[in-house]
């Protein structure tokens, strides 16, 4: 990104209280176009609160949010989605009993006209979802399989491919490698790399510094509701990140 360009997202002086709990204390945070930002910190650091503000779940009590240079205000997650912000929480928001195409197009189904009647175009939905899954390197022989029969890594792949298909501009991943095997974790990291190649920026929220360090362009560290570090990956090592978290 050129230095003269506006960041994709800029959060300025963000504060959030939950009763007497001061969850965020004047946090500045930004994501550049096509950038992968690792958001790290210990439990209670404020990571989840920050991304929930950016995804429209919570309003900030103080501060401003800018998206592509324009000040924005979210009343609900739908407002964030309309701008191109997609959030994958730890439960991935997939319906286990539904097959891959139905999950892929959930709420955005492709329809076809049959006389005066509109029907779901299941064939096109199946073809489009498989094509996008293959684009991120995920090969599933039968798209009609229920999501509950997929591995954790495959489920993450479906969710990430869906974000790519609908041309999201920013993907927020909340602990995406939790409870995954080593092989599945490597797959998810590769999916994020492929999304970056498509120009999709990501915020990778995690406790596992080694996972995010492998793919991040920049690391942002929170502690007790404050930003205590913001480094290009080349400027800091994993051990140094851990030391900042432990000592903050």
Brief summary of the model shown:
This protein has 248 residues and is α/β, with parallel strands linked by helices. It is 32% helix and 29% strand. It has a domain at 9-95 and 170-247: Rossmann fold, CATH 3.40.50.
Could you walk me through the main structural features you see in this protein, from its secondary elements to its overall organization?
The protein is of the alpha/beta class and 248 residues long. It has helices spanning 47-54, 77-83, 100-104, 122-135, 152-165, 182-197, 209-213, 238-247; strands at 9-18, 21-31, 36-40, 62-67, 70-72, 85-88, 111-114, 117-120, 170-174, 201-206, 218-223, 226-232. Helix 4 (122-135) crosses helix 5 and helix 5 (152-165) runs parallel beside helix 6. The mean pLDDT is 90.
Name some characteristics of this structure.
248 residues, alpha/beta, Rossmann fold, 4-stranded antiparallel beta sheet, 8 helices, 32% helix, 29% strand
CATH architecture name of the domain at 9-95 and 170-247: 3-Layer(aba) Sandwich
Low-confidence stretches: none
Which range best describes the helical content: under 10%, 10-25%, 25-40%, 40-55%, 55-70% or over 70%?
Answer: 25-40%
The largest pleated sheet is described as: 6 strands, mixed
CATH topology of the domain at 9-95 and 170-247: Rossmann fold
Which class of secondary structure composition applies to the elements?
alpha/beta
Tally of separate helices: 8
